[in-house]
Amino acid sequence: xxxxxxxxxxxxxxxxxxxxxxxxxxxxxxxxxxxxxxxxxxxxxxxxxxxxxxxxxxxxxxxxxxxxxxxxxxxxxxxxxxxxxxxxxxxxxxxxxxxxxxxxxxxxxxxxxxxxxxxxxxxxxxxxxxxxxxxxxxxxxxxxxxxxxxxxxxxxxxxxxxxxxxxxxxxxxxxxxxxxxxxxxxxxxxxxxxxxxxxxxxxxxxxxx
Length: 209
Description:
Layout (H helix, E strand, L loop, with lengths): L5 H15 L6 H8 L3 H7 L3 H25 L7 H11 L7 H6 L7 H22 L4 H24 L9 H15 L25
Helix pairs in contact: 1-4, 4-7, 5-9, 7-8, 8-9
C-alpha cells in the first residue's frame, strides 16, 4: 500500500464530517478506514485539531473555490453560469455534504470562522451573478441570500426525505429552473413544456430590480 500523505488524512476526515459531523473525526477509526496506523497520523499532524483544520481547508477548496473556478471558466450569455450552478446544486443527488453536517457544529471554535468565510464567499459570488443580470446590488444580495437558503433546505430534504425531491436528469433540471425562476420573480414559474434554461425576463434572462 502506498504511503499516506496529509491530503489522504484530510480527505478521510472530511468524508467522516460529511456523514456524521465533527464528532466522527477520531484518529483510530480513520486509521482503520485508511488501513493505516496511528503513527502515520502523527507523522503528518500533531493532534486532532490540526486534522480538523486541514479537513476544513479542503472543504473550502473543493466545495467553494473549485466550484467557482469551474463556473468562471464557462462562456455564454448572462445567466449561464448562474443556471449551471443551480443545476449542479439542485438537479444532482450528491454524496453527503459537509455543509449541512457542519451547521450542527457552527459554534465550534474551529468550524465557526471557516463556516462564516465560506458562507460570505458563496453569497458574494452568487450576488455577483445576479448583478450580471441587471439586479441592483441590494436586490442581488437579497436573491443570493434566498438562493443559499433554498440550497440549505434542499440539503436537509436530501438527508431527511429524499423521495420528495425530483430524480436526477431532466426532471431535476426543470426543478432547478423553477427555483431560479422563483428567485427572479416570486410570482413567476416556467410555463408548462418550456425548455430548461429559460427564465422569465429579458431575452437573455435578465430582470432589473
